[in-house]
Amino acid sequence: MKKLINEVGEYVNEMLDGFVVALPAVRRVEGTQVIVRSQLAQKVGVVSGGGSGHEPAHAGYVGYGMLDGAVAGEVFTSPTPDQVLEAIRTVNQGQGVLLVIKNYTGDVMNFEMAADLARAEGIEVEQVVVNDDVAVDGSTYTVGRRGIAGTVFVHKVAGAAAEAGLSLTTVRKLAEKVIANVRSMGMGLSPCTVPANGQPSFELGESEVEMGIGIHGEPGIERLPLTSSDETVNFLLTRILSDLPFSKGDEVAVMVNGMGSTPLSELFIANRRVSQVLSAQGINVYRTFVGEFMTSLEMAGFSVSLLKLDDEMKRYLDAPTHAPAWPNMGGLGQ
Amino acid sequence: MKKLINEVGEYVNEMLDGFVVALPAVRRVEGTQVIVRSQLAQKVGVVSGGGSGHEPAHAGYVGYGMLDGAVAGEVFTSPTPDQVLEAIRTVNQGQGVLLVIKNYTGDVMNFEMAADLARAEGIEVEQVVVNDDVAVDGSTYTVGRRGIAGTVFVHKVAGAAAEAGLSLTTVRKLAEKVIANVRSMGMGLSPCTVPANGQPSFELGESEVEMGIGIHGEPGIERLPLTSSDETVNFLLTRILSDLPFSKGDEVAVMVNGMGSTPLSELFIANRRVSQVLSAQGINVYRTFVGEFMTSLEMAGFSVSLLKLDDEMKRYLDAPTHAPAWPNMGGLGQ
After folding, report:
1. Which pTM value belongs to this model?
2. Of the four, A112, A134, A225, B86, which is 20 to 30 A from A79 by CA?
3. Cβ within 8 Å of B, A 104-163
4. CB-nearest partner of A268 from B18, B26, B295
5. How confident is the model over A18-67, as pLDDT tens digits?
6. Residue that finishes a domain, picked among A114, A145, A177
């Protein structure tokens, strides 16, 4: 295992320390793995989180216009209910808290338990479960579809809606609308190594790829020979487009998300093909996001997410945010 | 070679296509590898560039408040003079153009030749050469010190100064002030593979690292056993801090830059130690930037850059920009 770390057991702790010293607009709730905004606003709180190893998710999305708090579990391990509860308590300003949960068995169980505990304390809590991955129905990690990079669109839209002062139920419904309209699929060229394990999560041959891979090194739908970038994008888009389905005339946001060690150049090469395929099908691209948004440690590979937009979602997608991991949108016409 | 590409010969071309379709605020000058702002302002133009493979450098820094144009050579290969000339001609609005060149023999030669050709056409051109890497004096790529991630600070400050309407000579002097005050050093855990070569640039053992590595897979100052993140940071900072030298009471901007496949989590772990060392030496951190700013394809490793600031540089560092690869600074108090 060749990693730039100190003690394996301190991985998440030290990462969070290094994160908060870089960013004065966030702080760590003392004695926890919870990151919150330094200044909380009088509005509905939005909290997400999950296992670590997906950086910049989830702490990178904490900031004005996106999340109020993010809970970091150990690598690829759900945060415990008491940590989630701490996040809910901290961000709650009396107007309730929305939990954005990715659909993994551990996450759903622990976030729901925390929600119940918070409700018992009189805090209003609602929740949504993101399941954007069209690749598999059920895996070692979950029952039903997994939540992957499309979750970031939920953070953005729900966060902006909360910032606009909407009620908890309205923000929750808007998050559900994003979930209903976002589809993703990923593929991997290489495994990743969880620090506490020390061994790669799986083995792939020099010219093999895993299609439909998750964000924890868990398997996808099939192992195929490595082919061109264009054919790889075609493969992913065929499944994504037919799933919703997306149709001619639809307007979409595109996310081309690197899994951790795929060069940005290769992500842009993939985006070229995404753009071509969508254009050929009469689907209009409203915004494109290319980069690392929801990673899987140092895995090589990428995912594509499409979000079918309406005017309401467009407005919240474009609303200003200070979250450090949301791209500088100035160049997109804001 | 396991990469998500199509034809090797189309790598840069397709990457640039995928870049411009993602970003409406930039365009590609037809028939060239030059990216410019879609809307050019009446002001001094700032142009940078170099070999590809360093994404998001350099095209990601094109936008309001940073570069007006970026020239992309083939991977790890200087752009040709005619391409640089095309960038100068396109961005020039009659107030002259500043070239920001990284100190590599090919880049310096080709950018200077382009500057001479542009001057012969009556365009005022000045240039600066960035040489922030404290690791080596001379390598296979250059005479003197190399330009690495610290170059991004030059783009930011010079770009903001040009946006503020300063004259060509004033912008050039400010860029020189940044160069005089920025120091960097990097290390690598793994090599990278140039698509056209198909083979890793060097071999490293499972527990070896290369200290002082450049951004083209060229060697550093010594090959050492892999040690902890903290000790690695100590090693780099010892050389960086003593070079300027940085002293107690200085105020600095920190950049912890991933080389391509180092997880963001490991960069934050490194930043924690950077912060500790600077604090212990009485050096104040004004801003911290953690992410991928100047990469070397899929190399694993990172570099640390420190820029000693004064009020003038702070102002331009904090000035707004729309360049997509400059972080969303909202959370830093803007």
Report:
1. 0.97
2. A134
3. none
4. B18
5. 999 999 899 999 999 999 999 999 999 999 999 999 999 999 999 999 99
6. A177
